[in-house]
Amino acid sequence: MIKANNLTKKYKNETIFQNLNFHAQNGKFTIIQGKSGSGKTTLLNLISTIDDVENGGSIDIDGTKIEGLTEHKRAKFRATNIGFIFQSYALIPEFSIIENCTIPLTMAGMSQKEATKKAKKIIKELIHDADESFFAKTPMQLSGGQQQRVSIARALIHEPKIIIADEPTANLDESASKEVKLWLLSLVREKQICVIVVTHEKDYLNYGDILYEFVADESKKAKSILKEPVCLSH
Ligand SMILES: Nc1ncnc2c1ncn2[C@@H]1O[C@H](COP(=O)(O)OP(=O)(O)OP(=O)(O)O)[C@@H](O)[C@H]1O
Ligand SMILES: [Mg+2]
Fold it and tell me: For 15-67, what is each residue's pLDDT tens digit?
């Protein structure tokens, strides 16, 4: 469960949003929409503890107060609790596919051998024809869609309770995209994971429980405001 209250974010002189409230529950699929540049990634970076809360506001994640934590403490918290799927994959170019995926596990103390076994299993669930030669490749040897699926595998491998995804299926074809959506939905329904997805795809409204939307701030005090959440009924 994430509770962000009165959150403000400024880049130099520009206020992106001010006194924003955002709540996401475990066992719910939360969707965030809004125009390009409205602040979606900015909000995800704050609630995933990547960015420091510097301009005011509070973030509580499953009872832990995030604001005021040092970068080191935030990184430690993130490593166990959060899986982040980046808009730009953020795979390490010098590392093989397997090495990229095992990082969250080996960082937490698991042996490379055990981590590799787990990584192969999860990658195969996402890329059915992945074999030993695929595992040994580096990210630049893969297509955008393949890189995205590897980055999804890396985000899920340590079984985090919170998954935060920035346009996770933008580079996938329709069937791969549907598979990822159904997979995210099954994590929500079966494991009561808190899933938060930023997306432009209308199709997510068929999967999500709660919809948040950034719109222009007419008062001009900030660039955007986050509208009150809407419950999606299916
Ligand atoms: N590091 C930064 N320094 C200065 N301004 C930034 C920085 N990162 C983002 N911004 C600005 O903050 C605003 C929100 O950016 P953000 O990346 O959150 O948008 P977004 O909603 O994720 O857009 P997109 O859909 O294109 O990914 C933009 O006006 C952007 O120019
Ligand atoms: Mg973005």
Answer: 999 999 999 999 999 999 999 999 999 999 999 999 999 999 999 999 999 99
Instruction: Identify whether the C-beta of residue 98 lies closer than 8 Å to the C-beta of residue 119.
Output: yes
Per residue in 189-224, pLDDT (tens digit) is 999 999 999 999 999 999 999 999 999 999 999 999
Judge contact between 134 and 120, C-beta under 8 A. no
Question: Using one digit for the tens of pLDDT, what is the confidence trace for 143-185?
Answer: 988 998 999 999 999 999 999 999 999 888 898 899 889 989 9
Residues with CB under 5 A from ligand 2 (ion): 41
Bridge partner residues of 10 (DSSP): 15
Q: Which two tokens stand for residue 7?
A: 């959150």
Atom 11 (ligand 1) nearest CA: 37
Q: Which atom of ligand 1 is nearest to the CA of 34?
A: 21
Nearest-CA residue for atom 10 of ligand 1? 11
Q: Which of 42, 197, 213, 224 to mutate to test the pocket of ligand 1 (most atoms within 8 A of CB)?
A: 42
**What domains can be seen in the chain, in order of their start residue?**
2-94+161-231 (3.40.50.300)
Q: Are the C-beta atoms of 207 and 184 separated by less than 8 Å?
A: yes
Note the pTM of the prediction, 2 decimals.
0.93
